[in-house]
Design goal:
heterodimer; A: alpha/beta; GMP Synthetase, Chain A, domain 3; 4-stranded mixed β-sheet; B: mainly alpha; 0% strand
């Protein structure tokens, strides 16, 4: 081969080096940050994607772009499968959807109640472009309306919802964020579970509350804020909380600083195991309008007991609801049995919260132990005996 | 084509340790957690892993004994010394076929995973082609150069694996590992088969033994090299189960890749951590495939010494491409891999063990002066 030919061959190979089959310019990607799924007509799905509008995102401070434009765009499309619906969107938007940054998925209550959650989930864990870490929530009413909220602090509705869902650190009535990965697991294990509920009131969202799913994958119903608190005490997912009690007819707020729970079970009769749930709570007095002497050990004991009673009451209330009304073990007893009483669990697993519904019949003893550590920086705000 | 000739073509102990680790770590880390979880209950797969690793260590030890017995000799010369020329040629041919198919499998597997996670629209044919071109470049030089490459790549691979695990520590749930010791022992043994397969690869050092400069240290080097993948597999398996739980692991094609995918670091850029993970992954698969390719050529050259190395590269590449293109779907690729693994255990592990036995019985030893 002549030197010239060799040189040309080497140069020609450079063409290959510069190629990229899968190149998509960042300007051509429609970044989807959140999705909502509603029921359409005749069993079809109504899929809504929230796209970010990059020019409007930066426009606010820099003065460029379209200052008046919304920083996001919601596109809805209907089809019998979600994939088809997503494809149809390419007909309506200038940029095809790109889902690597999809943070939240909101599913409407109606879909969840008819057991469609597993169909909805399939695409979101099957497609390698999707992330298992996307959070799943159940909306009261229409899901796509939640993506239209005008967020007061954040730029995007999805950012607003996403940040709010991270608040279990400060609120006891939010279920910890549940990702697609978690739900995938619950479905595979035929497990009852609870995931965050999202509601909209006057342009605000609220994530307090939970949607409870039975082992048949159908949503059984919602838990309100207080019931979710009880559920969280059962699951041991309480990070912080507040309990209001009355002392001498005036309110006192007990701030929960840490809570832990341990479960034990007596499985001598596999058909009706008896559970003992021990909850230990530590905290301090957050606020009080009463005149009691908070330095008196007797008073402290009274407060501790009342807090324990109150929490026990909340827990029994939600337990009753889960056992009798929803018949769904969303508080992790089945996990406990699987982990610690494997052989017994294998026998009853098929009849736990389906079949014979052993969960609904099992006895549960709840014990709460509260320790009041700090009464705050002051003793009282008004003079004694007033 | 003239290439730069290195003065020193010898392989040191470090090269063997790194080479063995890099050769063994391949697809195993990506697929092993799933096959283990599918066959065992809960987190009991680690028992199978320990058993499989133990079997690999035993064969590693036997192969090292054979290497130490015949210093400065490749498998071909060893077999010639133990049996005769004809047997040696058959063994070399079998070995060449095995490693040849192995390269085809690795190429296809790599293309398959990259297509799923990285290149949505690039055809697998194209990915295979480019990978093969790089492979051809890699094996064009002497074997020692290829082995030295491992010294750079292995630390990178280990770093990225541990980074992925470290970033997932926050979602690790110890409860997922419970209950323990609940799997039937027969299932544990069945699952061991798969773990044994994931330790295949180090047998190629039977050929590289010809250049190893310290045959006495071979035992330590091979066993040390096997210990690295052993611990990597164990830690990755425990983490995957601890993070996803047994059921999800069972139902995810490449659990370790999903682990990399769900890493979330505030700051945007690292939201797609898996792209870095896969880039590094391609590097280790390149090394595994390149070493197997290199051994194919080394084995073939002992049979036909006439043609030059480049000639073999040029002729083998299209054949490998054809082999890589044969499986039509994920299941077919898996079956292909399984058959190659059976061949590997037979040709790469059992055969040398038999040779060692014969050598011991006939009291045949290699040149004692070299050490």
């Amino acid at each position: 081969m002549s030197k010239f030919l060799r040189g040309m061959l080497a140069l020609a190979s450079l063409i290959l080096a510069a190629g990229c089959w899968d190149r998509v310019e960042i300007e051509d990607r429609g970044f989807v940050v959140g999705s909502a799924i509603d029921e359409g007509k005749d069993g079809a799905y109504e899929l809504t994607f929230q796209y970010i509008v990059p020019s409007a995102m930066q426009g606010k401070s820099a003065g460029g772009g379209h200052p008046s434009a919304k920083p996001f765009q919601n596109v809805t499309s209907t089809a019998t499968t979600l994939f088809k619906a997503a494809r149809k969107m390419s007909n309506e938007t200038s940029r095809p959807p790109y889902l690597e940054h999809n943070k939240i998925i909101i599913v409407s209550e109606r879909l969840a109640r008819t057991g469609k959650i597993q169909e909805v989930l399939d695409l979101f864990v099957r497609d390698p472009e999707m992330r298992r870490a996307a959070k799943l929530m159940i909306s009261v009413g229409q899901a796509k309306k939640l993506l239209d909220i005008k967020p007061p602090i954040e730029t995007l509705p999805v950012q607003y919802i996403n940040s709010t869902s991270e608040n279990p650190e400060k609120s006891e009535s939010i279920v910890p964020p549940t990702t697609m990965g978690h739900v995938h697991r619950f479905l595979l294990e035929e497990h009852s579970f609870a995931i965050p509920r999202i509601t909209q009131t006057d342009g605000k969202v609220s994530l307090s509350g939970a949607a409870v799913f039975g082992s048949d994958k159908k949503m059984k119903g919602f838990l309100d804020g207080e019931e979710t608190t009880g559920k969280n005490y059962f699951s041991g997912t309480i990070k912080a909380g507040a309990v209001e009690i009355e002392i001498e007819g005036k309110p006192l707020l007990f701030e929960v600083k840490s809570a832990s729970r341990t479960v034990s079970a007596n499985v001598s009769d596999p058909e009706s195991p008896a559970f003992t749930v021990n909850v230990r709570i530590e905290g301090n007095v957050g606020e009080t309008y009463s005149h009691v002497d908070l330095l008196d050990p007797q008073v402290i004991r009274t407060i501790e007991n009342r807090v324990s009673d109150k929490i026990r009451e909340i827990m029994y209330f939600v337990l009753e609801k889960l056992q009798k009304e929803y018949r769904a073990d969303a508080i992790g007893f089945s996990d406990y049995l699987n982990e610690n009483h494997y052989r017994m669990w294998k026998k009853v697993a098929a009849n736990w919260d389906r079949g014979d519904h052993l969960f609904s019949k099992c006895k549960v003893d709840v014990q709460v132990h509260t320790r009041l550590r700090i009464i705050g920086a002051i003793e009282r705000v008004q003079p004694e005996g007033e | 084509m003239k290439s730069f000739e290195y003065g020193d073509r010898e392989i040191g102990t470090t090269e063997v340790v790194y080479g063995v680790s890099n050769m063994v770590i391949g697809f195993g880390v990506l697929t092993l957690p799933r096959s283990l979880a599918a066959m065992t209950e809960s987190s009991d797969g680690w028992i199978s892993l320990v058993l499989g690793g133990g079997a690999a260590l035993v064969f590693g030890w036997l192969i090292a004994l054979l290497c130490a017995r015949f210093p400065k000799m490749g498998l071909n010369d060893m077999t010639k010394a133990i049996a005769n020329r004809a047997v040696a040629n058959v063994v070399a041919m079998l070995f060449a076929c095995y490693t040849f198919l192995f390269v085809g499998y690795e190429t296809r597997g790599l293309a398959n995973i990259s297509k799923l996670y990285l290149f949505d629209r690039t055809p697998e044919e194209a990915i295979c082609l480019f990978f093969l071109l790089v492979l051809a470049y890699g094996v064009a030089g002497p074997s020692a150069a290829l082995l030295r490459l491992n010294l750079i790549f292995l630390p990178l691979v280990l770093l990225i694996v541990f980074l992925v695990l470290a970033m997932n520590i926050s979602v690790f749930n110890v409860h997922n590992l419970k209950p323990m010791f609940v799997t039937d022992w027969q299932d544990v043994l069945k699952a061991t088969k798969g773990t044994v397969f994931s330790f295949l690869g180090f047998e190629i050092f039977l050929f590289y033994n010809a250049w190893a400069n310290r045959p006495k240290a071979m035992k330590k080097a091979i066993l040390g090299g096997l210990a690295v993948p052993f611990f990597v597999y164990l830690i990755v398996f425990v983490f995957v189960i601890g993070i996803f739980g047994s059921e999800v692991t069972k139902n995810t094609l490449y659990p370790t890749a999903e682990l990399a995918k769900q890493v979330e670091i505030p700051g945007g850029f690292f939201e797609r951590f898996e792209s870095i993970f896969f880039t590094i992954w391609v590097v280790t698969l390149f090394n595994t495939a390149a070493m197997a390719f290199d051994v194919t050529i080394v084995a073939l050259r002992t049979l036909f010494p006439k043609p030059r190395r480049m000639t073999w590269v040029v002729w083998l590449c299209p054949l490998i491409y054809l082999v890589a293109m044969q499986p039509q779907s994920v299941t077919e690729i898996d079956t292909f891999g399984e058959w190659i693994s059976y061949a590997g255990v037979a040709i790469g592990w059992c055969l040398p063990a038999v040779l060692l036995g014969v050598a011991k019985m006939r009291r045949i030893k290699g040149n004692e002066q070299v050490s």
